[in-house]
Amino acid sequence: EDDEEFSFGEIARHLRKHRHLQVIMAIMVVTFIIDVMVEFQFNAMAKLAYHNKNDLTAFLGNFYGFWLNLITFVCQFFLTGFVVSRFGVGGTLQIMPVSIAFASIAALISPSVLSTAAARLTEASTRYSFNKTGMELLYLPLPLDLRNRTKAFVDVFVDRFSRGLGGMILVLLTSVLAVPVKWVAAIVFVFSIAWILLSMYAKKEYLRTIRRRLDSRS
What we know:
Shape: globular
Structural class: mainly alpha
Number of strands: 0
Largest sheet: none
Order of helices and strands: HHHHHH
Oligomer: single chain
Number of helices: 6
């Protein structure tokens, strides 16, 4: 559809113009980078814990097929609505980075398949529940055509770019600098703190953008 088409020049022009859009893009970049890093750490620890390929496959299948779906379902249908109504956009957006920050501390202090699985479970389940809802609300003050184009841009470009950037950081850490896997959790923690700050700023921009749109309509 036309609403979902975009050009890089158009998105760049809107990015320069809207701070609200800048903070959305920044949050999405950090989200995808953390996703890559947390998944890498979990898979690395799982391979160390399960040397047999069949055992590893069974463990990952049980993790993603049952536990992740169960926790995500509970968060989405029983907790997200309460959190949004009680804490608003800002509080909803902060649940994922705060949870990951604590999970990363645990993975750094006690690196194991259990601690990294908890971090991965936290990251993935909150991304598809609290964070997804919070980001949808964050998009709302934007004009509909810009909102659709921005979402398309995120899906087509930002996702791949950010995951590629996360992969490059991992290569630098693990291959070039030969950093132990557990220290990936420290990098995730740093990104989580930056994400928390971005979420706080996003709340201010969200309210500011709503006020501007209301004033323009008046």
